[in-house]
Structure formats: C-alpha cells, structure tokens
C-alpha cells in the first residue's frame, strides 16, 4: 500500500484495521541472481536500487539479526557532505542529493530534517583550513558558508564564547546538512525493496561462502545453502570476520563508537554542532533529546558496548563549548561497531574472487553515505564497473599509493 496523510486519516476512522506488514517474511529460496549479505542501511539500499534503478528482481538480503539491529539503528543520524578531497566530496554530495528526495522516492517518512551543520573553528590556522574545505565543497556543487564569530553568535547564542578553554572564532556552516531518523531509513528501504520483489531474510546468518576455482557461487547460512550468481557483502563492523570466511584479509579494524541521548528538552539546538578543538557533535531529536557523541573507544572490539573514559571525554567536549549541557540527564547510551579503514575512506569494489563484491570501511561516515553507497554498489554489481563518484574506492589503493586520507592521520584507524 502507499502511505499518505489521507490513508492515516482513513485508518484512524476505521479502527486501523487496513494496515499491512511493511515487508514480507519469506523463506529462503534455493537460488537467487544476487545475494546481499547484510540487512543494514547499505545492504537494503543496494537491494532497493538494484531493483528499482537497474531492473534486477531475483534478489535476497540476508541479515543475521532483525532489520535495524545493527549500525543503521545505532548512530547519531547526521547527514552532510562537508568533505575536502576529490575522492570523497562528490560522493557525499551525491548522497546528500539522494537524501533530499528520498522520502518521495520510497514513500516513507524518514524525517529528513535539513537544519544545517556547523563545524566550529578556534584559531586562525583552523579558519584557513575550513575556508579551503568550504571552497572544495563549492567546487563540487555543495553549499558552504564561512561564518565569523558574530555569525556563530547569531546562529548559536547559547555557546560559551567568553570563558571557553578554546575560544570560538567562527565556523563552517553547511545549511543543507542535518539529521534523518535512522531506523525509519532501514524500514523505508526494506519496504521499498520488498515492494520491488526483493526477499528480506531475517535471522539468517552467513556462515561461509561457496567458492569453486576462484568463483563465488553462493553462501552457506544458518537457514541452509543459497546459490547465487553474485554475492555482495556489506556488513560494517563485521566485515573482517565475514570476509575471512572467503579467505580475504581486509585493511580494516573494528572499533566501538558510543552515542548518547538525554531527556527531552525544549528546542534549543538549531541543527548539528561540532566542536573543532575536540571531537564532540550534538543535535536535537524530534522528541527533544540531545543526541551526541565523540571519539571511538580506541581499541579493537566486536562488542556493542563502550567504556567510561570515553564517556568522560565526550561529556568534557560538550561542557567545553556549552556548559548548560551539564544540567541535562542522559537517558541512554549505546555502541555501534564501526569498520575503520587505514585511510579513513571506504571501499566499494569487486574482489579477486569472481562474483564476490565488497562494501565497507565507512568509519564514522556510514549513515550519511547510505543512499549513495547503495546506489553506487548497485551500479557496480549490475553493470560491472564503478559509478563515476566512487571510482577511487578501490580495495587495492594502498598497494598503488592512492590513499584518500581525508584527515591526514595516515594508517591509524584509531585516529580517524
């Protein structure tokens, strides 16, 4: 069924008896043309665009848990395209443009809220770096405004301009950035993929690959073997473990990233604010809670939990720029396992095994990249060649010295 305001009104009058499940719960078939391993945002988006844009129909998405149980439901919901390097900026701008039309595209309210994102700067050198970044963004077709201190005061008058350890001098503002309801993205893509004939197989864990003479011919799962002409893996923080079953070692480390949400408050945060002298970012949800986070925990893990030193560090970052946050009570916190690549940029590529594809290494950027990642991955799978905005996301780029080192931190995933 199509969702609309009229439909909500009609169902309310008739006892809400006409609603149907958003997607089917089918049993696995013996064979598909394409099997997508991972039912998170990227996997579901890939299936959706394969079916809708590239005419593929015989597709299955296999997910070891339930839809929305991974990182797509465990993030701080920020979308933006304020990147610097030519290998990244066009891709994330393409993603932001897809976000802008997403709800109308798959007929689901994902609560896309383009209230803007501002990155604060605290020194002349940082101002110059942000000016360079803003110019790179504008050259790629994105929007960017460099604000001085008066501009930040007008936008965020509640920040501590007078007593801060790192005085706020200004910021780089992207008005089109903002937030999106994370679990609604998963549900919307799942519903859209199902509507186009995709089988979504929940509680179906991949335990191995069927590889014969260098050709991938399917997967082994907890619900039986499934043959496939093509297998596409996109499992975020579990990338190394899953691809190890195909005999591959990836340039990826898995780290936990914590996030927090406070009690509901009256509207105060205009959009998304990031602290330029530390690593702290905050926005306000539609329910009024402040949603914020900071650094990864810095040690390798597959556990969806964090530790107290990072909690303290994140809260210190918030207090440094807006002391009033210290009066808010934290309701809950959670962790997501992120796939940290060696240069801080992702991979969308074929592997050396024929018929096996890989998508991963998204570091902090996985959620904001969801639409473009799915579209570009679908393009690669369907046409056998990379999408123009994803040509640099090669698995072999380290061998050839073609890193996309966005932060200049080198081969240090814990610093990205």
List key phrases describing it.
416 residues, globular, alpha/beta, 10 helices, 26% helix
Task: Characterise this structure.
The protein has 416 residues and is α/β, with parallel strands linked by helices. The chain is built from ten helices and 18 strands. It has helices at residues 5-13, 41-52, 89-100, 102-106, 124-139, 149-155, 182-195, 239-244, 308-321, 370-383; strands at 31-37, 59-62, 78-79, 117-121, 145-148, 170-174, 178-179, 199-201, 206-212, 215-221, 224-233, 252-264, 272-274, 281-284, 289-300, 330-341, 347-350, 356-360. Strands 1, 2, 8, 9, 10, 11, 17 and 18 form an eight-stranded mixed beta sheet that branches. An eight-stranded mixed beta sheet has the order 5-6-4-13-14-15-12-16. The chain has a two-stranded antiparallel sheet with strand order 3-7. β10 (215-221) and β11 (224-233) form a beta hairpin. The protein is globular, with a radius of gyration of 21 Å.
């Amino acid at each position: 069924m199509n969702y609309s305001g009229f439909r909500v009104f009609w169902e309310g009058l008739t006892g809400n008896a006409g609603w149907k499940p958003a997607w089917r719960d089918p049993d696995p078939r013996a064979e598909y043309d394409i099997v997508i391993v991972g039912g998170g945002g990227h996997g579901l988006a890939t299936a959706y665009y394969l079916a809708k844009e590239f005419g593929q129909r015989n597709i299955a998405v296999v997910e070891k848990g339930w839809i929305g149980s991974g990182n797509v439901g465990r993030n701080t919901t920020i979308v933006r395209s304020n990147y610097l390097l030519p290998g990244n900026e066009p891709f994330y701008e393409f993603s932001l443009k897809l976000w802008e039309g997403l709800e109308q595209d798959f007929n689901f309210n994902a609560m896309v809220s383009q209230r803007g994102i501002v990155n604060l700067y605290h020194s002349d050198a940082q101002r110059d770096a942000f000016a360079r970044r803003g110019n790179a963004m504008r050259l790629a077709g994105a929007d960017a405004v460099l604000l001085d201190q008066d501009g930040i005061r007008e936008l965020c008058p509640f920040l501590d301009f007078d007593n801060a350890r790192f005085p706020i001098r200004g910021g780089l503002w992207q008005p089109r950035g903002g937030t999106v309801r994370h679990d609604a993205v998963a549900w919307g893509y799942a519903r859209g993929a199902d509507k186009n004939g995709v089988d979504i197989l929940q509680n179906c864990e991949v335990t191995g690959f069927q590889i014969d003479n260098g050709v991938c011919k399917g997967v082994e799962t907890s619900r039986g073997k499934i043959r496939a002409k093509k297998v596409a893996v996109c499992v975020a923080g579990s990338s190394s473990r899953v691809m190890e079953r195909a005999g591959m070692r990836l340039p990826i480390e898995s780290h936990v990233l914590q996030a927090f949400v406070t009690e509901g408050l009256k509207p105060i945060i205009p959009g998304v604010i990031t602290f330029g002298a530390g690593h702290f970012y905050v926005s306000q949800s539609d329910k009024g809670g402040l949603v914020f986070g900071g650094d990864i925990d810095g040690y390798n893990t597959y556990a969806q939990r964090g530790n107290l030193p990072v909690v303290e560090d994140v809260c210190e970052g918030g207090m440094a720029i807006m002391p009033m946050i210290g009066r808010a009570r934290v309701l809950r916190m959670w962790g997501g396992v992120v796939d940290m690549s060696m240069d801080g940029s992702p991979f969308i590529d074929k592997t050396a095994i024929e018929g096996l594809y890989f998508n991963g290494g998204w570091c902090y950027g996985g959620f904001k990249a969801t639409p473009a990642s799915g579209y570009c991955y679908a393009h690669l799978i369907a046409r056998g060649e990379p999408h123009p905005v994803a040509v640099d996301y090669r698995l072999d780029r380290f061998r050839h010295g073609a890193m996309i080192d966005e932060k200049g931190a080198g081969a240090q995933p814990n610093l990205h």
